[in-house]
Amino acid sequence: MSEDYEHPDVVIEPGGPMLVRGATSIRDADGEVHAVDRPVVALCRCEKSSRLPWCDATHKVIPRQPSDRS
Amino acid sequence: MPKPRGALSEWVVHALADAATSDSAGTAPEADSAGDEAIALWTIHELSYRGFEDASDDAEWDPRVLVVRHGLETALEARLRARWDGADADVPAADVPAALQALVSAADGPSLADHVRRHADVDQVLELLRQRSVYQLKEADPSTWVVPRLPVRAKAALVELQYDEYGDGNPNRLHAHLFARGLEAVGLRSEYGAYVDDALPETLEMNNAVSLFGLHRRLRGAAVGHLAAFEMTSSLPSRKLVQGLERLGLEGAMVAYYDEHVEADAIHEIVAARDICGTLAEDEPDQAAEILFGAFTCLDLEARFARAMLDTWAVDA
Question: Using CB atoms within 10 A as the burial measure, which of B202, B253, B313, B317 is most buried?
């Protein structure tokens, strides 16, 4: 029988952002609501992004915290 | 069609122009140079994208042209594989995303984005954009050929990524179109293939490799590995390009193009490494090594291109 695949809407990338599928708007930490116009967005988890709430890959150039390891 | 660069590309241009009517072109001659070979293959591959006004629509599947294409593709693939020394490594499927990350981290080629951010002048940036235009006006297209060749999970993930590349249903956000608008904003020509006659052999080889991977089912692993490495090395450099363009006063649509890639490729790199390459390797374990070959090729060809550009500008890498 053909498989039923796992396909979560929210995926946490170890040491990276949180991917969110199917959202239409996101409220950031300052209370501002951002429209989403992509099927998947990456939300910053390191809080160092230059375009919060979105990930801009800055996490790749900052030292990782021990708690991020997985 | 592009301007021939030697006997072989001269033959190709003639053969494509009258594929339907003539058998007078005879046997194709040997290439005169790497540049001749590269533009010959680029021109033939182009028949599978948008074609040329002055080429016959029948040329794409003309047996005489296919013989030449096969010879050029075989030589290109052999050259690319000879540069890759990881072919014998046994990579378990589950390790493919981490192995991709390791390859990207180990890549030590010079960074054109660093040069643009800090030092490049306007002429250098425009030259870089002319070279990039050869691929970026058909951005994402070669990956689309791979879709029907993938198992279920990798196929769904690739289409999810491609949907974003093609503007999420909005033609104004289609990446190749954003790039065309960017070219116009900095005073360059935006017609498809406008600068192919200026393309360095390194630019053409980058293009030819991605077309080769996209056009052959056998090379589907290399195609998605190439895509993953491309996405994994795009977000941070795109931000540097934005900073460089702004430093030079080239604000507007070209900044918007690279700005879009900061955000989009931070998403795409994860989808590509895990959901496309990772699941393909799980479903077809023999593709794991091919995925890494494709990723290496992307990084290696980009490094060769970067060195060629910096050499042109007499900049120390």
Answer: B202
Domain boundaries, chain A: 10-62
**Structural domain for B24, as ranges:** 7-81
Contact B8, B40 (CB under 8 A): yes
Whether residue B290 is found in the same domain as residue B205: yes
Does residue B72 sit in the same domain as residue B94?
A: no
Contact A5 B153 (CB under 8 A): yes
Whether residue B317 lies inside any domain: the answer is no
Residue range B92-130, pLDDT digits in tens: 999 999 999 999 999 989 999 999 999 999 999 999 999
* Spatial contact of B157 and B232, defined as CB atoms under 8 Å apart: no
Q: What is the mean pLDDT of residues B65-69?
A: 96
Instruction: Please answer yes or no on whether B271 and A40 come within 8 Å at the CB atom.
Output: yes
Same-domain check for residues B77 and B94: no
Cβ–Cβ of B262/A56 closer than 8 Å? yes
- Nearest CB among A16, A37, A56 relative to B239 is that of A56
Contacts across the A-B interface (CB distance below 8 Å): 57
Q: Are B258 and B236 in contact (CB under 8 A)?
A: no
* pTM recorded for the entire structure: 0.95
Which of the residue ranges A29-33, B20-24, B53-57 would you say has the lowest mean pLDDT?
B20-24
Residue A67 binned pLDDT confidence (cut-offs 50, 70, 90): low
Q: Is residue B1 part of a domain?
A: no
The backbone torsions φ and ψ at residue B13, rounded to the nearest 5 degrees and listed phi first, read -60, -40
- Domain contains B2: no
Q: Supply the pLDDT for residue B126.
A: 97
Is the same domain home to B187 and B303?
A: yes
Rounded Cα gap, residues A24 and B94, in angstroms: 32
- What total of structural domains would you count in chain B? 2
pLDDT digits (tens, 9 = 90+) for B188-209: 999 988 999 999 999 999 999 9
